[in-house]
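Can't attach files on this board, so I'm pasting raw text. These are the components:
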Amino acid sequence: MFDVSAAALAAQLFTGLVLGMIFVLLAIGLSLIFGLMTVVNFAHGSFYMLGAYFGFVLLGLSGSFWVALAFAPLAVGVFGLLVERFLIRPLYGRNPDDPLLLTFGLSLVLVESARVIWGKIGLTLDPPAALAGAVNLGFTWFPTYRLFVIAVTIVVVVALWVFLKRTNVGLVIRAGSRDPLMVAALGVDLRRIRMLVFGIGSALAGLAGILAGPMRGAYAEMGVTMIIESFVVVVVGGMGSLLGAVVAGLLIGEVVSLTTFFAPKLSDIAVFGVMALVLLLRPSGLFGEAGLME
Amino acid sequence: MQRRTFLKTATVGAATLAFPSIVRAQGGDTIKIGFPGPTTGPFGALAKDQQQGAIVAVEEINAKGGVLGRKLEVLFRDDELKPAVGAQRTKELIENEKCEFIVGGLAAHVQMAINEQTKAAKKLFISVSQSDEITAKPDLGPLTFHEALNPTITSRAVGSWISQNLGKKWWILYADYAWGKQNTAVLSEGLKKQGGTLLGSTPYPLGNPEFSAHLPRIIDAKPEVLVTMTPGADNIAFLKQAISFGMKKQMKIAQPLHWLPQLKQGGPDLYSDIYAGISFTWQLEDSIPEAKNYVQLYRKKYNEPPGDYGAYAYSAIHEVARGITLAKAVNSDAVASALLANPTYNHYKGKQWWRTCDHKAFQDLWIVKGRERAKMKGDWDFLDVVQKVAASESLDRTCGEKGVA
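---
Top answer:
Structure tokens for the assembled complex are below.
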């Protein structure tokens, strides 16, 4: 079982990195939304799915993958803004289960709508010609497109980090997730900030979707399993922690990849094993701040 | 959650109240055939092909005056790819809709649940899904029939062709559920008999679209042939990723079956040079008159050629009709006896027959290979027929091995 070459193992770690990147993008959005609004967004997987389908539509209209890559996340982000404004906002101040139920219901509606609009069988998206081949990494040939996914994710995560740490809006978002009441008392209009954060989170899910599209295709149920694993990432990283989402995303990606390599039958369960272990040792996650959940 | 439960109950209630009236309005004195299938979910496209095949058969039969002077009617239900739902829908079809016959099922595990219901209600069931168990002890019932191929037949035929023509060093990647496991078992056994080597076999969870974590190890093992059981939507995701890792150039890729909806979606860029078995492909219209009849009827109604799973449904509906005509009775027992007494039939691809000890349909199948884009004639011309594998009871387990002799 362990008679594997170092090259294969290195290639394996690389595939895990790409899996991790998609998790990172999804988990950051989930974590941001939860941190600021304590909304457990069950529709996040559907936003991921919409990203892939919007990408497919935009690719068809424009003929350019780059246009699709730029605008599909924006379109999902705008959709997220509308969802926050008209569906979730009326539920603030009520039982936290209410937005959870609402987003759960919304995810069912979106999956069914995708089936109606785009059909029950998946669609395929092709990466642009420039990214279609494979690159020799020395130890293995690796699809260029997957390297591109890694690069895009790094750029987006760094940009987001700068935005949250170095801008005034970022400061308000961070403060709002610590103590919304105090921030509101200081005269900040939290409603707009919440809308913005929900939009950003949705756009990141959309970006994950369009990035995943050329690897996995687009189909209505594509978000269903991803959302569960993304929640695991958020819990492992610590609810509301950006750094936690990044570290845990990469960790879970590698865990999935390596268990698939050594014990494929366990790949499904391994992520939950990691979650259980982390929760036992650090109940608020790897980078979670104690007290946020109360 | 109470609200949800309430809504669910209310919707189901409203549907059952509204539905029978519609059916009754059309119904009159029709002969009803119930048809459960997974119209939603990853097998949706195949289920749609099955429904269309069944509709073509019913319209063809009714246009010729029906059976015993009565029209046929098919009632479709969504089993959601869940055994419990399949059982419930079947029960409703039999008890509420008074269906005397059931045809359908697409996933092996759901078909078993349907079969349990038809056995309990003593109704004829013609399964149109791949499964080894359905015609073996303890699942085979006196009124259970199996029209589709099964993993044993498919994988024995396809496997021995692969090892004789593509190579004897294999890796197998399979969806970790009944159909994937059965095929893997049969393929491994066959390969061993041929003196080949199985370098490794890896399961993946059905419906998981990410295969990249499986690929480095397979590439590293350097098999001559990679045989995969990646059904439904997984098939496209798998091929996309395998090709992006350059595997099509490094090894031959083969699978037990090709499916037309997937071929259409994935196109020749994915499927060229991918080998598989198939129970029916519309190109057979050139050589088989019955195939030509079916393909023409289907094309006329749906403006596209039929797939392999739809053809099973077409044939099964015809068998119900043939059985009723032979028995001169709309009764499951009589129809089953009539079919077994006259086991040979030919509805769409040449001679088929029921083996009387296990009610299994024996039929030809074909080895096919994905065509390159440049060689395609028209939008649907995805396959080259490489070889015909003639129907033979020796490809299946014997009734003794199945425990039903």
